[in-house]
Structure formats: structure tokens, C-alpha cells
Amino acid sequence: MMNGVVNPTLTGTVRQPSRLLFYGVVMVSGFAGLGYQMLWTKMLAVALGHEILAVLAVVAAFFVGLSLGAFVFSERLRRSTNPAAWYIAMELVIALWALLMMAILPDFNSWIAHWIGAEPSHWRHWSIAFFSSLLLLLPATLAMGATLPAMERLCVARYHARESVAVLYANNTAGAVLGTLLTTFLLIPWLGHSHTVILLAIANVFCATTTLLWYRQSVSPAEAPRSEHQYRLTHRHLLLVLFLTGFLGIGYEILMVRLLSQVLENTVYTFASVLAVYLLGVTIGAAVYHHRQGALKPGDDHWNIWLTRLLLCIGLSMLTGIAALYASERIYPAITQTGNAILGELVVAASVFLLPTFFMGALFSHLVQRAAIRTGLGIALGVNTLGAALAPFCVGVLLLPALGAKPVLGLLLSAYLLCLPSARNALKYIPVIIMAAALLWWAPPLRFISIAADSKVLQYRDGVMAAVAVVEDSNGHRHLKVNNHFTMGGTATRFSDHRQSHLPLLLHGAPRSALYLGLGTGISFEAARFYPGLETTGVDLIPETLDMMPWFGVNPEAMNWEPKPRLLAADARRFVLADQQQYDVIIGEIFHPSRDGAGSLYTLEQFAAIRERLTSEGIFAQWLPLFQLDLETLQTIIRTFMQVYPDAQLHLGHFSLQQPILCLVGAKRNLRFDANWLVNRVFDPTLQQELVRERLNSDLALFGGYLAGAETLHAYVGDGPINSDDHPVVTYSAPHFVYSDPAPPAHRLQQLLDQLQPTAQSLLHTTSDNREFSEQLQHYWQARNLFLQAGIDVKPNDTISNLVTQTREPLLKALSISPQFEPAYRALMGSAQAMYEVDRYQSYQLLSDLVQTAPERKEAAQLRYRLFGN
Question: What's the pLDDT tens digit per position in 706-731?
């Protein structure tokens, strides 16, 4: 085949169809295959979980299915006199099974989640995820694994193209590039999962129909191939090299994607961009190899020379990719400043992946072209894909957490030595290998942590899910950073974090059990210890965050915390489906909406599953970061939430303009409250002291953040899309926020306040006892809005004189409306004390205004007397 010798059994007088059309079919097939892989991985994660074990188990199951398909059908395709029939059958099987899976998946996800259980061992979780995915996908993946070998046989039969593998592979992978980009950027956001599956099935039917219409079999029966059972060492070495290069290529991808996650935005578009660049490099490499294939001289020696050159080029280009990774911390911000963050991600991905994958594509074509002659293309693909199937688990789960990124890269580079055609070749390049090892050894750690010059890293860990760091700033505050981009709270936000626990627990009134979905630093979770007898369960996707909690003063084993909480490293979606316990309060912590996978925590199905875990009197509180959300995405989440909790409420977590947070509250019952809510429910002295610290020690403070009830929220969100597993609107809309240059969060809060007018009737029971409190609340909310509006245009670093000039009148007005509005009184007191050092007359006047506006409060008069003597 390599020398262009035509097999007489494959000749015949045929009317050859357009070769471009045939290559188009090959490309469309690749488009559909990659689209399915991305879709099925996401659809199965609902029940199997987003834990790395489950994700990689699904990826491995997909690859193993492809490998089995290539193995099983290899000999049949080699002997077939009608490869077109086989190819048509494969495409139709893929289409039919893809459509059938749409009906199977809902029941499968429900069943498999319960089978895995809420707290499975690692082995049980991986085994069930792998084997169930393998069996579920097997009909389709078996057929997919055989499509490229069938195409190669069809191409040989129709065009007598003995060097067809590289060009077929290039076209098929080019289709996969399009599948990655179109599926992620267009089809799923526009059509949703089910309709995208239907479109991909139509693509399969197009491939089958086009092949049927254009192909006419008129060749002689194929000669049975020579038996290859008496393999020479070269055959075995060829298969070993195919296996290793499959393993090493995907291993490099897994490792570099993990490292890039510390630089790029980690949205659903980030992974698609990186994968598209990876596949594009492979495509170009295979295409160039096909174009230059005629220059390859006959004979094993020349073939081995090219093998050696390609292997060395891969090693050297991987080093350039590592160098580009170090530079990416400067490249990416420089490009994103132009306003195109996705372009920045593509450029960074290209600098890291394009050159190595170019040579990987050429190497694969070089290997598989020969293997197709000796063992059949199916065997070659099967061996290579089997190596690829093992890489994610070995590299991502075992090697990276155990050794760190640099040593694993060194191992991957060194392993390419095993692929050299002879030991003599390996010895010749020992100096080059030593230089490469020295470069890696002396290179800085592959850790990307953006911190200020006066901050320091206290702890860092490359975990199975993410790179986690504890950073301490110049003020002594500690912050938890995940993959460099996501700050998951810290000691500076303890006030806010504790309120995220207290608000839902106090709204319930008498909770006996609570479930936290998401832990981060554990500071929010830690506030639950102030509630006597409260049984708490905390779930977080990233195992390393549990180990980092003591850095933030959260150590359940060492603290006076009874009963001891239950902490689990698990996916929130899977846990809620699998758990059988019911809870009085369930708290969905703040999730970064733009992060790939976070959008599934705001779906209709997730909210409904949580409702099933609530007791009859239970409430569910979902916290939302307004500082990371545009209002359109916020409306989608609220609209979805209200499909499950029609009597929902919206509360403001605190009065911060820099990082405003919202709390959606829902229950199985209508949520209504009464005056003296706290007095009648909070009796524990320790909890009372904690509420004083958190400024939640009054009913006005507790309900003061109330923004809207069901009727107002319905009017606000109107009609629009629902975020569901089938149509994941948030997953694909939220990233636009981080890719854009949004207005300050205070402006979005202002818009929200303008459109939401809370009424006491939607919050309180309509009784005579609540009438006076209702009026107080209405005044409190008016004062709150004035207070927040006063701070919107304040410059943080402005002088105290300008700050007082801007805020004095609106804050005094807020106090005149609601003398109990503590934040305004406290802010004016602070301003008066600060003004004393700058302008004593203005300080005196401000204190006098405070005394006059809120005469029942004594603090202003006392401060005036202490400073001025009257």
C-alpha cells in the first residue's frame, strides 16, 4: 500500500464519485462523533457526578467502546467485498442508538444515582460509572470505532488510494474540530441537548444516505489477507508504539488542560476552544503528512528515520509548549484587554498545543499507514485508542496529585524514548534528552497563582479536581483560590459568610438538620455550630477544599461542635439524587455561574430534586452572586426556581455594593412570618451573641434584606427560557459575563432595587399583631434603598470631606424615614468621628443632625459630648 502497488483484487471498472463529496462524508462523520462525545459526557454527569473519577470513567468508557469497535470489526472489514454496506450500517446504528438513548437516559440517571449511593467508595464509584457508561454507550461507540476503518476500505475499493489513511484521518479530525466548536458555541445554546442529538443523528443518516447513493460496488471479492499471527518483533513494536503514543498524546492533553485551567476562564467555551485547537493541530499534521507522503522512500530504514524525527519533534515541541505555558500568564491578559477573551483563550491554547499536536497528527499517520498494511487499520486504531483510554485516569488521577505537574511532564517526555525504533537511536540522542531534563529541572514550578507582591502562598496542592491554594494578604486575611481564578471566600468575608448560614436557618426558625451544597473555606458552614443540636452535612466537589478548612479556623474535630458534622467530597447533583435523608434546611452555597458545570446546579431538575430532600416544613436557600451575574441570567435562574417553588422569596444577603449577594428562598409551604420572630425562637445565649456580631439580632435586621415575594418576582422575570438539563441556558449564557466588561455590580443592584418593590403582605401573616411591624418594615426597606443608592457613586479612595458631602443628606433622610435603620446611623457616626480630625465644625454639625434626626438613639449625643463637651 505504501509503495503505491495496486492490489488486483480491488480493481474494477467503476464510475468514481466525487472524491470531495466522499471526504465531506468523512468530515460530517467526525463532526457527529465528537458532538456525541461532548453531549453524552455532560448528560451522564447528572447522575454519575462531576467528580473526576466519574468524569474520567465516562471518557474511558467512550474510548474503550471505540477501541472495541475497531478491534471487533477489523477482520470483517478487511475481508468484506462490500465495505460500503458496513459503513452505512455503522452510521445508522449510531443514529438509532443516539435517538434511543434520549428515551433511556432519564430512567438510567435516576437508577444509577441510587445504585452508586450517597457515599460510595472510590472503587465502587469508578466501577459503576465506567461499566454502566460502557454498556449504555456500547452500541454507538462500537459502531463509531469501526467507521474510520470502513471508510479506509471503502476508499481503497473506490479510488485505489493505497495511502488513504492520513487524508481520511485529517478530514475526520477536521470534522471533529467543527463538531467541538459548532456544538458548543451554536447548537446546544440554540437547540438544547435533545434537538442537538437529533441534528447529529441526521448527520449520521446523511453520511449513510450519501454513501448509499454514490457508491456502486463492482469489484471482485477481496482476497483473504495474509495471516498476521506470526508477528515479527517489528509488528509488535509498531503496536506498542501506537499504544504508547495514544497514551502519551492524551496524557499531555489532560495535563496541559489542567495547567491551563489556572490561566484561562474555565467556562464551557474554554474547554471547547482548547480541544478545538488540539484537534486542529492533529488535523494539520495528518494533512501535511499526506501531502508529503510521496517523499517517503521505500524501506524500513527510511521509515524508521522519519519515525525518529517525528518523535524528537514531538519532544522538542512539547518543551516549546511548556515555555508558552509559562508565558501565558502575560499573553492572555494582554489579549483580553482588547476585549476578546475567547480569542485570548484560542491564542494561548494554540501556543501550547498547536505545534506538539501537529507532530502527533503526523506521527499517528506515519504509524497507522504501515499498521494498516500489516495488521489492518482496525487493529491499529484499537490499540491506539486503548492507550488513550488509560491516559486520563493514570495521568489525571494517579500521577498528577502524587508527583506534581513538572515530574509528570518529564515522565511523558521520557516515555517517548520507548517509541524509538532501536536502542541505538535512543543512545544517539542522550545529550538532547539530558538537556531537556535539565531545562525541566531548572524551570520554575508549574503553578500559576496571581497574588499581590505583598501577599504570600501558605499552602498549595495539585489535586485530582483542581489546583488549590491558600493565600494570605498584607492585612493577614486568608483567601482560598481554586485554579487561580476562583476565590472561594476567606477570613476577610467572615461576616458575609456567616450570614449565608444564619439567614436561612433563622427563617426556618427551629431547624434540626441542615445540608450544605458547597463548602469552600467552610466559614459559612461553621456558623451552623451555634445552633444547639443541629445535625449538619456538608458536600463539596473538590476534595482538597476539605483539607484546607483548618487554614480558615474551621476544624470540626477540634472545635466545640456537637453533634459532629458530616463532611463529604461529592458532586452536589449526584448527592441530592442519591441521598435518602430529608433536611429542614438545604443551603446552596455561592457557585461561580460561569464555571463549566456550575450551571447544572441551577437547573429545574436540581431544584426539584432538592425539594424531594426537604421535610414538610423545610426550606431551600440558593445563594446567588450578583457581582458575577448579569441580570438576564439572574432572571433565568429565578424563573426556573419558581417553577418548583412558586411562592419563592428573594433576599439581599448584606448591604455591600462591591459584592452584593442574593438569596432565593423556597419551601414546600407558603413562607410567612410574624413579628417577634427571633424573640420567640432564639434562646441560646451563644447564638444570641453570634447574632449580635452578625447584626442579625432583630426582626428588622433579619427581614431588612427582603426584596420581593412571588407576585413581584413573577412580574420581574416574565416569560422566558427555563434552565434545564436538556436546555442548559445558564451554562452557556453565564460565561458571557466574564468575557465582557460588565458595569459595576452596584449598578445592577440599583436596577434590581428599582424594579422590585417589596410589600409586607407578601412576607408576613395578615394579622393585627403584625400591623405595626409591617409599617416598620416598609419604612426600613425605604431607608435601605436610600442607603444603597447613596453609596453607588461614592469613590472608595475619596477624601472624607467629599464622602460626607455626597452621603450626608441621603443617609439622614434614610434615618428620618426609619430611625431603626442601623447601617445608616453607624455610617454617619463613623463619618463624624473621621471628620473630627479634618473639619471639627462639620463633625459637630453632623453629630447634631444625628441627635435631631434620631433622638431616641443616645450614641451620637454621647460622642458629641466626648469630643466637644456638649
Answer: 999 999 999 999 999 999 999 999 99
